[in-house]
């Protein structure tokens, strides 16, 4: 990555870091008690800090577990932006939630985040008894860049046969990093994501152009989707990423993957964090309800 682009990525990283920490006040679920604890997991790409959210109602038996990957264009390291989602899911889906603070670019480009995301999830699956969760009942998910990492984790889990997620949640996922962002349309004149910003994200994250089409970077370009976990795919009508998310849902379904796909109308990228509040709440409620069903199977 040229030095000038790296500086630009760092500037955007610093600017967006503060903005993405702000969640709409009516989406914070402050009425739900938060029970958290720190966790540090060693991975092949260095140690990773995580936050563990415990369900408020304990049944006395180990709860299933959900591993969450935050968004931020692969360059913003702010897992706290998903605090409201993690808190709500822990309470309403009755599961332990692991919120992962994975490595971000341009300091740590691909494949560091993929390695960390997979290794943390594999560790969570293998270390349930000593941590009072059931690693055999596991799901993964995330928003935007975190949804991309979710798809990568599920692909690696299938290839290596190490664990089998019961559900993957893909919320506004970038799954085609090859197509030029200018070709990705939105009904809005000025959607949240603009082509320049998206190019900076990709350039910072994937430093070798040969990797952009790799299935772990652009899962929508893979031709072997059979055998992946059931998926909840959420897309937003006004999001530049809507078309590729819709197409990925259809491709998964065509390969026999059980897919629940919901397009939220009249909203843009990041609506689960900034609103509109009714749509944001409905999407988060859908995540929790789908997780509860999948993890209780």
Task: Describe the 3D structure.
The N and C termini lie far apart (46 Å). It is built from 8 helices and 8 strands, in the order αβββαβαβαβαβαβαα. The chain has a single domain, classed as 3-Layer(aba) Sandwich (Rossmann fold), CATH 3.40.50. The chain is α/β, with parallel strands linked by helices. The chain has an 8-stranded mixed beta sheet with strand order 1-2-4-3-5-6-7-8, with helices on both faces. The model has no long low-confidence stretch (mean pLDDT 94). The radius of gyration is 18 Å and the shape is globular. 35% of the residues lie in helices and 18% in strands. Helix 3 packs across helix 4.
Give the arrangement of secondary structure elements.
Elements: H1 3-19, E1 36-41, E2 48-53, E3 63-69, H2 83-92, E4 96-101, H3 112-126, E5 133-143, H4 145-160, E6 168-171, H5 195-205, E7 231-236, H6 242-254, E8 259-264, H7 271-274, H8 277-295
Parallel strand pairs: 3-4, 3-5, 5-6, 6-7, 7-8
Antiparallel strand pairs: 1-2, 2-4
Helix pairs in contact: 1-5, 2-8, 3-4
């Amino acid at each position: 990555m040229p030095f000038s682009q790296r500086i630009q990525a760092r500037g955007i990283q610093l600017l967006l870091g503060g903005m993405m920490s702000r969640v709409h006040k009516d989406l914070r679920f402050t009425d739900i008690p938060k029970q958290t604890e720190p966790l540090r997991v060693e991975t092949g790409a260095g140690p990773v800090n995580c936050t563990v959210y415990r369900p408020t109602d304990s049944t006395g038996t180990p709860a299933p577990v959900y591993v969450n990957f935050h968004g931020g264009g692969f360059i913003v390291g702010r897992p706290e932006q998903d605090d409201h989602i993690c808190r709500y899911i822990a309470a309403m889906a009755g599961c332990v939630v692991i919120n992962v603070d994975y490595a971000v670019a341009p300091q740590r480009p691909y494949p560091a985040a993929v390695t960390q995301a997979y290794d943390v999830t594999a560790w969570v699956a293998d270390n349930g008894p000593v941590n009072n969760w059931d690693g055999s009942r596991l799901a993964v998910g995330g928003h935007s860049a975190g949804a991309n990492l979710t798809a990568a984790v599920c692909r690696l889990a299938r290839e290596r046969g190490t664990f089998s997620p019961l559900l993957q949640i893909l919320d506004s996922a970038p799954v085609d990093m090859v197509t030029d962002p200018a070709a990705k349309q939105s009904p809005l004149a000025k959607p949240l994501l603009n082509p320049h910003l998206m190019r900076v994200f990709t350039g910072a994250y994937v430093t070798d152009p040969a990797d952009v089409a790799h299935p772990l970077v652009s899962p929508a370009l893979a031709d072997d989707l059979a055998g992946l976990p059931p998926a909840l795919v959420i897309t937003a009508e006004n999001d530049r990423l809507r078309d590729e998310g819709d197409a990925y849902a259809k491709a998964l379904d065509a390969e026999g993957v059980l897919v629940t796909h919901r397009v939220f109308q009249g909203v843009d990228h990041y609506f689960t964090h900034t609103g509109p509040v009714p749509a944001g709440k409905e999407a988060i409620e859908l995540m929790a309800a789908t997780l509860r069903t999948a993890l209780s199977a």
